[in-house]
Design brief:
Layout lengths: L11 H7 E3 L10 E9 L9 H10 L1 H5 L2 H4 L6 H18 L17 H14 L5 E3 L18 E5 L5 E11 L2 H17 L2 H11 L6 H11 L8 E12 L12 H6 L1 H21 L7 E9 L2 H11 L1
Parallel strand pairs: 2-7, 5-6, 6-7
Antiparallel strand pairs: 1-2, 3-4, 4-5
Length: 312
């Protein structure tokens, strides 16, 4: 266990209640990338555990939004602590933008809404074991705008003592093509517009956990005082999309067969997804970085947003 493992917040026990994956041997050529094909488990009624997922996300609401310093209730008595926690949850709710279905057009689709960013946060913590280093929601100045730059900043120290910085990108679209195109466009822009410099500075000015030695390491990397092999840049991407196969859940003649054979059906889908993302990487200009790409299909992405918004 390294020093940052102590700062992982999300519980694998909760994660395992809603998420599963399919094993696969798909690989992407020409770039360092790991593919993760996730899906929501079914409840006893044969419905994906959407409500349970949202419930778990809300259990981490303030942890996701605020730094540990802001969440500290040290020195408070029990009544003061309850009032403090309640006010903190209210403040967190105000930070979230509600995307209504009528607001979404082909030219105006949300990246994911913050629900997608929270899911990516959960996956990055549990699967990649990289704790959040900057609470970007806490940096918001306008509750109707999403924080510019990446959708999350996480950090991990690997077995070779190399600092890995993860910049998140969550895209939830009605179709997989739009989600993939948007993700790659955003990452290209992230580097073309030098947004990464602002992100690096956020790590050093709003860090939650890094010791001085690691802060200095990032600063030296930003100012080109150390070589690239001392800091590894990774992009953690979450692609959420509507999957037509889920419509079989609405057909009484197909529902049970679909559930019984879900993993093999999704296994076939992973091959299609791999081909789609390979074509994007083939024309991608930032192959020097490393990537973790999570795929997460839904019956309806908008249903996820609606369920999340209903809790706000």
């Amino acid at each position: 266990m390294n020093e940052l493992d102590n700062y992982l917040i999300a519980s694998k026990v909760y994660y395992d209640k809603v998420f599963d994956r399919v094993e696969h041997s798909n690989v992407i050529n020409g770039v360092d990338v790991d593919l993760h094909f996730k899906y929501l488990k079914f409840n006893p009624n044969g419905t994906p555990k959407l409500d349970k997922l949202v419930e778990i996300l809300f259990s981490y609401f303030t942890h996701y939004c605020f730094s540990s310093r802001k969440r500290s209730s040290a020195g408070m008595d029990e009544i003061e602590k309850e009032q403090f926690i309640s006010s903190l949850k209210d403040e967190a709710r105000e930070l979230f933008r509600k995307w209504k279905e009528e607001d979404i057009t082909p030219d105006n689709q949300p990246k994911a809404g913050e629900v997608g960013e929270m899911i990516l946060w959960l996956l990055t913590e549990v699967v990649l074991k990289a704790p959040q280093i900057v609470a970007k929601m806490d940096l918001k100045t306008n509750t109707q705008l999403e924080v510019f730059g990446s959708d999350g900043i996480h950090v991990k120290i690997d077995d070779n003592n190399i600092l890995n910085l993860y910049f998140g990108e969550a895209k939830f679209y009605n179709d997989i093509y739009g989600a993939l195109d948007s993700a790659f466009e955003s990452i290209e822009k992230f580097h073309e517009d030098a947004m990464y410099k602002r992100e690096y500075n956020l790590v050093t000015t709003h860090y939650k956990h890094l010791k001085q030695e690691k802060q200095d390491q990032i600063y030296n990397y930003i100012t080109n005082q150390i070589s690239d092999d001392e800091v590894k840049i990774r992009h953690a991407c979450l692609i959420g999309y509507d999957w037509g196969e889920y419509q079989k859940l609405s057909d009484v003649n197909e529902k049970q067969d679909f559930i019984d054979n879900f993993t093999s059906i999704y296994q076939t889908e992973t091959e299609r997804l791999t081909k789609l993302i390979q074509t994007r990487f083939d024309r991608f200009s930032r192959k020097e970085f490393a990537f973790d790409v999570f795929f997460l299909p839904f019956k309806s992405v908008q249903e996820l947003r609606n369920t999340f918004n209903a809790k706000l």
